[in-house]
Amino acid sequence: MDRTQDMHYEGHVIRTYHDGRHLWFAASDLARALGLRDGYALIRSAHEEDKAYPELETEGGRQRSAIISDIGLIVFASRSLKPSGRKLLLWVLDELTS
C-alpha cells in the first residue's frame, strides 16, 4: 500500500494510501477531525472489505493502523444524521471527483 498526498479536512491533515484500486484514509486522522474517540470507533461498523489494519509507517515508527476505504468513508458519512456527516460526505465526494 502506497502513501499518497495528504488531504486536509477542517484544519486537520488526513493521511491517505492507495492500493491500486481504492483510496484509503487513516481512521485516526478522521476521528480526530470529527471529535471521535479513536479510529477504531469510526470504522467498527464498516463492512469488512472497507476496513483494514495494515502495518504502516507513522511518526512513531511502523505500527498497525486502522484505515477505511473511500467507499467505506462515503457510507459512514451518508449514514450520519448530524450536520457534520453531510459536511464530511460533501468533502469526500469533492476530493474523489476533483
Description of the structure:
The protein is built from four helices and nine strands, in the order βββββααββββαα. By secondary structure, it is α+β, with helices and mostly antiparallel strands. The mean pLDDT is 91.
List key phrases describing it.
9 strands; two-stranded antiparallel ribbon; 4 helices; 5-stranded antiparallel β-sheet; 98 residues; alpha+beta
Summarize the structure.
This protein has helices at 27-34, 39-43, 70-79, 83-97, and strands at 2-3, 7-9, 12-14, 16-18, 23-26, 51-52, 55-58, 61-64, 67-69. The chain is of the alpha+beta class and 98 residues long.
So how many helices? 4
Rg result: 12 Å
Measured as a percent range, the helix fraction is 25-40%
The helix-strand sequence is EEEEEHHEEEEHH
Give the termini distance in whole angstroms.
22 Å
Question: What shape does the CA trace take?
Answer: globular
Enumerate the spans where pLDDT stays under 50 for 5 or more consecutive residues: none
Oligomer: single chain
Give the tally of β-strands: 9
Walk me through the topology.
Layout: E1 2-3, E2 7-9, E3 12-14, E4 16-18, E5 23-26, H1 27-34, H2 39-43, E6 51-52, E7 55-58, E8 61-64, E9 67-69, H3 70-79, H4 83-97
Antiparallel strand pairs: 1-4, 2-3, 4-5, 5-9, 6-9, 7-8
Helix pairs in contact: 3-4
